[in-house]
UniProtKB/TrEMBL annotation, chains A, B:
Signal peptide: none annotated. Coiled coil: none annotated. It comes from the Bacteria. SMART domains: Ald_Xan_dh_C. This is Xanthine dehydrogenase family protein molybdopterin-binding subunit. Residues 23-135 form the Aldehyde oxidase/xanthine dehydrogenase a/b hammerhead domain. One of its GO terms (molecular function) is iron ion binding.
Amino acid sequence: MTKQDFRIVGKSVKRADVIEKVTGEGKYTGDYHLPGLLHGKIKRAEIAHARITRIDVSKALAYPGVKAVLTHHDVPKVLHYGSPHPRSASCTKDQYILEDKVRFWGEGVAAVAAVSEEIADEALDLIEVDYEPLPAVYDIDAAQAPGAPQIHEVGPGGNLVIPPVHIERGDVEKGFAEADLILEGEFEGGRPVPTYMEPNVCVADWDGSNKLTFWTSTQTSFMVRGALAEVLGLPLNKVRVLVDHMGGGFGAKQDLFQHEFLCALLARKCRRPVKMEFTRRETFIAGRSRHPFRMWLKQGFRKDGTLVARDMKVIYESGAYGSHSPGVTNVGTASATSLYRCENVRLDGRAVYTNTPIAGAYRGYGVVQTYFAIDIQMDEAAEKLGIDPAEMRLRNAVREGDIAPSGHPIVGRGLEACISHGIEAFGWQAKRGADRGVAGRPSVRRGWGIGCEMHGSSAYPGIKEQGNATVKMNEDGSVTLLTGAAGLGTGAHTALAQIVAEELGVTFESVHVVHGDTDVVPWDIGAFASHTTYLVGSAARMAAAELRERVLARGAEKLQEKVENLEMVDGIITARDKPGTSLTVHEAMGPSRGIPAEHLIASGSYMPTKSYSFAAHFVEVEVDTETGIIECRTVVPVHDVGKVIHPIAAQGQIEGGIQQGIGHTLTENYVIDRTNGRSLNAGLVDYKMPLSMDMPDIRTIILEAAPDPGGPWGAKGVGEDPIIAIGPAIANAVYDAIGVRFHHYPITPEDVLNGLRARKKELQDAGI
Amino acid sequence: MTKQDFRIVGKSVKRADVIEKVTGEGKYTGDYHLPGLLHGKIKRAEIAHARITRIDVSKALAYPGVKAVLTHHDVPKVLHYGSPHPRSASCTKDQYILEDKVRFWGEGVAAVAAVSEEIADEALDLIEVDYEPLPAVYDIDAAQAPGAPQIHEVGPGGNLVIPPVHIERGDVEKGFAEADLILEGEFEGGRPVPTYMEPNVCVADWDGSNKLTFWTSTQTSFMVRGALAEVLGLPLNKVRVLVDHMGGGFGAKQDLFQHEFLCALLARKCRRPVKMEFTRRETFIAGRSRHPFRMWLKQGFRKDGTLVARDMKVIYESGAYGSHSPGVTNVGTASATSLYRCENVRLDGRAVYTNTPIAGAYRGYGVVQTYFAIDIQMDEAAEKLGIDPAEMRLRNAVREGDIAPSGHPIVGRGLEACISHGIEAFGWQAKRGADRGVAGRPSVRRGWGIGCEMHGSSAYPGIKEQGNATVKMNEDGSVTLLTGAAGLGTGAHTALAQIVAEELGVTFESVHVVHGDTDVVPWDIGAFASHTTYLVGSAARMAAAELRERVLARGAEKLQEKVENLEMVDGIITARDKPGTSLTVHEAMGPSRGIPAEHLIASGSYMPTKSYSFAAHFVEVEVDTETGIIECRTVVPVHDVGKVIHPIAAQGQIEGGIQQGIGHTLTENYVIDRTNGRSLNAGLVDYKMPLSMDMPDIRTIILEAAPDPGGPWGAKGVGEDPIIAIGPAIANAVYDAIGVRFHHYPITPEDVLNGLRARKKELQDAGI
C-alpha cells in the first residue's frame, strides 16, 4: 500500500481477451462441439404444484434419433443444491435432480438426449405425464397463512426456508423513546432476472476411465465439481470442470442447476457427449431471479437527523426451492445494521417458499432490497426534519471504527468521501434549488436524488473464503498465472495479470492467465461477493512476490550482485546504484547453480477478513406527468474502491450495475400469474431491460479514499456495489420531481399516473 | 530404500487407463476433431539431392476445397531441430521447415491444407516442382570419399555432423602389448525403424488472442513448445502443447518434425484448426530410424580372459539431417568405455550425413550398435581362450566403483548378479553341453548364446536433467498428481501414481494423474533415457512426502496427537500406539485451524546423478540349414532394475524390447536404394516385424540387485535395456548352432545360407 510508482496497476491496459471477443473467436461453452455430440432438452411441467402419478417415456424413446430419456425413476436420489461450498451455510439442500413432485410451473420433470435439438424438442412432446394437482401458494401472504399447503418436508416448517434471522443490538425501545421523529413504512420489490448474454449451457463427456469432463458456464467451477461428484458418487479427481469465456453470470451462475446434473447423467447413459443449452425463455423459468421482498421499516431520528432506532422485518420470497435464500436472508438482514450508524437495531429476516420460480443469488444479494427501503426512509426523514438529504446522510454515514454488517470494524471514511465528492461534482446544492420544470416540455418535471450503499468483498456468511494463485516463470521469462477465479466477462483475469506483472516487475503482456480447469488450477471458491480482485488478487500478489525473489536470486548470481541491491522493472533486472549492470529476465532464466529455471513456480494462498466498499449515487430524472414515463438522465456515481487496478474495467462495472439498477427500479419485473403460477413474460420481448438509448449520462468518479489493508495495494471489490444505490436514488429523485413517494420497484408509468392522481386527490381533499 | 513393507509399490496394480484403452474410448491425438477442422498433407520430393528451381502452387490453390499451400517462400527462415532442450548438445540445428533444397528422397517440399484428406492429397499432385539435380551420396563410404558432394553448409565439413568424438583412457598400445590374444573385426548394422502403432499426428488451433494450442503425439511436449515458440516467434506462454494417450514413440517421437511446424503454420494462415497425420509409409520416409553403422573393433585379452585393451572406431549414418546424431554418437561411443572393464581404451565415434532418410533417437540410442560388436567379440575371445562365454563375462563385468560411461561410479554389482542368475535359471551349463541336433528335424541345429548390456537412466550427454511433480489433495481426500512426464503407453503414469500413493499413504485408486498440458503441469524434460520412473518418480515421491506431513498435521490437530506419533496407511491416519485413535484422510481434510484444505499442494523437483541398469540375456535359437531361417525359441532375460515398481509393466517393457531386438537382429531393415536414394520397403508389408507367432518363450527375471540411491526406493530405468543385449545373444547362439559368425544385423536367411556355404567351402579347403 506504500508503493509510489505503479507501472501497470491503475492503468487501463488492453485486455488480453479483447481481440478474440471482438472477432468472435473466443470460445464460450456453447462453442464446444465434440464428435458424436448429442443434444439434451428438459420437459417442463405446466402445473405449479402436483404429484406425478404416471410418466410414460416409451413413445419418446422410440422416436428416431432419441438416445436416452431420464425421469425421476432414473436419477440418484440425492438432495442437491445447497452446500455448493462444503462448509457453507449459504444454500439449502432441498432439491432432487428429478422427483415425483412438481413445485413450480416450468420445473423439469424429464430429460431427453437426441441427435439434434429439434428431435429432442419433438421427443419432449411424446412424454406423457399424469399429475395429481396439489393446493399451491403463489405469494408470501398465502404461504404464511395458517393452514397453508406446505411445499417442502425439509426445513423449519411454515414454508420458511430457514429459521428466522434475528439480529438485535442496543435497546430499540429506548432508542425510539429518545426519538424526535419516528417513521414507519412498508416496502416491496419485484422479481428482476439477471439477463446475462450467454444462456446457461453445459457439455458433459465421460472418458473410458469413468471420468467426467464437464464444460459449463459457471462462476463456481469447484462448487460444480463438488456437487457433481457428490451426486454421481465420484471422487473429486474424477470430475473435471472447465470454463473458458463466460457471457455474464451476475451471481445466478454460482448455483447448481438441474440441467447440469441431467446433462452429466444423460452423457453417462449414452456414453456420448451431451450438450444442454437454455433457451432465453428457460433462463427465466429455470434460472434464478432476485428475491421479491416485502419489508416493514420503522426508524427513529433526533431533530439533528441522528438515527437512534431501527426496527425492521424483511421477508424474501424464495420461490419453490431455497437456493441461496439462507445467504441472501443473512446478508440482507445484516446489512441493515449498517450504512447509517445506529446503536439500537432490531432486525428480523425471513425467506419463504412459494410455488413460483426459484430466486437465487443476484448482484446485490439481499442488500438491494433492504437499502432501497432504508435510503428512501432516510430521505423522508430529512424532509420532515428540514435537513438537506445529502447532509442528512453525511451526518449518519458509517465511518472508521463502526462495526460493519460482517462484525468487522469499518476501515476509513469511504462513505463520507463518496457523498462529499458527489455533492461537489453533481452540483447538488444548485440543482436542488433549481426549477423542476423543463423549458418547452410542460408535462415534464425534473428531480434530483441521492442513494448510498456499502457492500462487502468476501462478505459471505458461513464461508471461510480463500484465494489461491500459482505463478510460474517459463524458460524464456514469460509468465503463466494459474487461477481458479472465473472470468465472467468483467476483466478479472486482466486485473489479476496486472497485479502479477506489477508485483513481479515484468510487462503486462508477458503474463498469460490459465484458468477454469479444476484439474489443474488451485482451488477457488468461485466468483462472487465482489471478491476476485480483492481475494485472489492478494494471493496472486503473494505468489508473484515469492517468485520475484527467486528470479532476483538468479539475477544476483549472474550479475554478481547482492539480491537486496537488485530491482526488477518491466522484465529488466538492474543493480540500483549501477545503471549499466542489468540483464533481462530472459537472460536470468539461463543456466544457474541455484534454482533450476524449469521449476520457478510459486503459490500464494490468502484468507481475507471482510472489506467494505462504498458508493453514493446522485441522479437526475425527468418524469413525464402525461405518460408516467420516468427517464433517468444523469448519474454521478461516486465509488470508493480503495485502489483501482484497471480504471476502465472498474468504470464498466459501475456503468453495467447502474444499467441493471435502472432496470429493476423502472422496468424489469419477471411476472408470475398469482392465480396459477404461470410465467407471463419469460422473454426479452415482454421483460423490459434498459437499452443503450435508455442509458443516462454517467459521470463515474472512482475514489481511493479508504484502502483496505487486506486487498492488493488496498484494492476492494466493485462488482456488486453499483447496482445497490441507484434504486433509492431514482425513487428519491422521482419524489423530488413530482412529490409522489414510491415504496416499491419497479416504478411503472402506470404507478406514476396512479400516484399523481392520488396525490392530486389528496391535495384536493386537503383543500390545497 | 530402507522401507520394509510396501503396499502398492512392487505390486502389479490395475492400470487406470486400461479400460479406456481396451474399449477404444481413450483419446489419442488423432481423436481430436475440432469444428472447421482442415487436413494437412505434405508433398514429398522424388529426388534425393536437388535444388528447387521453380515451385508453382497456383493450380493447387485453385482446387476446390484447398485453403492454403505453403512452400519454402512462405515459412520462417529459422534453422530448427537441435536444441529441443535449450541447453542440450544432443541435437543439431541444420534443418529449415522448408527450403529451396532437397536432401533426401521423400523430403517435404510443400504443404497443403484442405477440407478433406482426399482433396489435400489430390492437390499435392497439382503442385509443380522443377528440380536441378545435385550429385548425391548414399552411404558412409561415398559420403567420406575425397571430393564427395557436401550435403550441408553447416557443421565441421567432410559430411560430418559433428567433430569426431574421441575418448582415450590408459595406454592402449601398452594394453595390446600385454595381451595374449588380440582380435580385430568389422561390424555393421541396418536401418530398423520404430514402428509405433500410432503414426505421427498433430492438430493445431490458434485462438483469437494469437495463442497456439497444439495437440501432438510427442514424448517431449515442452521441447515441442520451445521449438514452436522459437520458430513462430512467440513467447512460451503463447504455445500450449497437449498430449493425451500415445501409441508408442520409442525415442523417435522426441524429435521435432517438419509436419508439426507446417501444421501450426497452416492453421495460422487459415485461421482454422488443421490436422496432419502420417500415413504408415510416411512414418518410414519422414520418421526416424536407428542409425545404420559400421564399426571397427580391436581388443586384447590375457589368457585368463581379462580384457586389457580396446580400440574402436564407429561410424553412424545420420541420413540427410543431424537430428539426434550428436547424442547418439556421444552415448554410443562412451558406452564402449564400459560393460566389460578395460583400463586401456581408445574410441573414435563419428556421424556422417548421407542423402537418405533421417536417423534419430530410437530405444538403445547408439548403444545397440556398439554392444552388438563388443559382445560378439567377447564370445569370439572366450572361444579362442577356451573359457565358457558366461564365465568370460563374469570375469570382465563392470562392478561397484568402476567408472560408468557417464563418468559416474557404478553402484553395486548388478551385471554379475544378472549373469549368475541367468546361468542358473537358463541351465546354461547343461544346455551348452547338449547336442545341437533336433530329433526328427535333421536340417535344424540348436544353439545357445548370451549377451549383456548396461544402460543409463538420465544419462543424456550435455543435458541437465530434471524431474518435477506437483501433488495436490482435494477436499475429499482424493489426490491429483500433475506431471509433465509423457505416457507413451509404457505405464509410466501408473508407476508415478503408485509412488505417490505409497509415499503419501493412500490407496492407488485415489490418485489421479493429470499430464500432457504444458500450460498447467510443471516443466518436464520429456520421456527418454529410460528415466521417467527414476527421475520424475523421485520428484513425485518428494512432493508426496511433503504433502503427507501437511495432511498428518491436520490429522494431529483433529486427533489431538503429535504428528510424530501418526502414520497414514491406505488413507487412514492412525496413532501408532493407539489403534482406536484414527480418522480417514477425508475426515482430516475437514475444517482446520492450520493449513486450509484447499491449498494442500506440494511440489517436488529432482536433479539426478546418472544411474545404470544391467541385463544379461540368455537365448536359444534354432537354425534351419535348408531354409536359412533363424528362430529364436527361448529367452531368459535377467534385468537388474534396483527396485521394481510395477512388475507386469516392467515385464511388458522387457518383452517388448526383446521383440524389437529380435526384429532388428533377424528381419527388420528399412532399405534405401543405394543408387538413387529411393525407399524400397516403406510399409509393413515389405518391412518385416516379428509377429506374436514369431515370439520366443520369454521367462523374465527381474532382480533388485543394485538399488540406486537416486531412484525412488532404489528404482532404476528399464525402458531401453531389453533391446540391447538380445542382438548379440542371438548372433552368438547362431554361431553356437551352425558355427558361422555374423558381424552384422539383420542376419537374413540368405546370409545364413551364404554363410553355411562359405563355411563348408572353408572346411573343405582346410580338408576337414
